Amino acid sequence: MVTIKQLPREDYLLPGHIACPGCGLAIALKTTLKALGPKTIMVVPACCTSIIQAGFPFSAIKVPLLNIAFAAAAATASGIANALEYLGDTETTVLAWAGDGGTADIGLQALSGAAERNDNILYVCYDNEAYMNTGIQRSGATPYGAWTTTTWTGKREFKKDVPMIMAAHGIPYVATASAAYPLDLFDKVRKAKKIRGTRYIHIHTPCPPGWRIPDNKTVEVGKLAVQTGMWILYEIEHGEFKLSPPSRPLLNKARRKPVELYLRMQGRFSHLSEEDIKKIQEWVDRRWEEVAALVKR
Length: 297
Description:
Helices cover 36% and strands 14% of the residues. It is an alpha/beta fold and 297 residues long. The relative contact order is 0.13.
């Protein structure tokens, strides 16, 4: 794994962006662009990133960027990738960068099409687990029990497993990551950059306003998501499943922290009953049984 001292000094997310204090998205984007470097073209559908890049005619993102319709990120990225191939450009990475709403819901059809064709794009979903830019509405990636402005008493459905949906397409690389583990994220983006075809990375990005957490608790909450097993870090490279170092010890159930520690830190879960928390813990334990079966293959 890369060390902090080995990270490139050049930043491509510049001062002057207007992300909220403590924004997990900003951490994830800064790390991703460090890994990809200047030969990158970003495609951004409607999402928080559309706003934080700063107001026209200025931009705080130091690579070419296209703001595109909500449903069209993967389709647009595919078109750009094909144009670059026609021009003989094999060095530029086409990065589709979208939120969970534009990935798990509105953009899933275009993403599935790109994956089925194995178009040469890197698609990154930064997952803050709701439509945060438009007022904290639930998405398919919102976890069970979470308060949003459209689920006042808590969402009743569990989170859509988009990384595994993408893996089912047979694409060459799928990974999960976390803004709270930037070095792990950096390594995965660097690896994905070198692979040809559709690559998919799903980043867990805590959102202080939407999650009802203090803006200095982003990393702590993000780490707890991993340490409790709520968010599992792994890679699937050419069909081979591999747990990432922060998640490997958690195959031992005794090494996982109780999910209640993670849930109780967030105002969006403050209404949960003991029965709700038990249900979420059981869901986490079942997921880890599935992971254990994948590791044994």
